Amino acid sequence: MIEFDPLSNRVIGCAIAVHRGLGPGLLESAYEQCLAREFSLAELAFEVQKSMPVEYKGIHLDCGYRLDFLVENKLIIELKAVAALLPVHEAQILTYMKLAQVSVGLLINFNVEVLKEGIKRFVL
Known about the structure:
Blueprint lengths: L5 H17 L5 H14 L4 E6 L2 E3 L2 E3 L4 E6 L3 E6 L6 H14 L3 E6 L9 E5 L1
Parallel strand pairs: 5-6
Antiparallel strand pairs: 1-4, 2-3, 4-5, 6-7
Helix pairs in contact: 1-2
């Protein structure tokens, strides 16, 4: 069993509450709004759809890259509502973590029967 840090545990608890309330099969945007509500109730500091510029060869580019959630300025959450997580989803969160200089991320797929099967944790 993997040991998660306390912040990851709190975020996962919020995600489980949303999944228990809604179940699988909805659009990602519905889970995002409900998860934001759970974060508020848990008194977690967070930003939704945080725009992040890409720095490339000394310039900042606004490429429309957005984090689903940045929690407590130290945990990136990438939400999915897909039949199966793919390697491209993992590459996406790892790239977001690298660009945002955040060392921990959670990839959460709500389109599963048991949420624990849809959570992957990444550490740089």
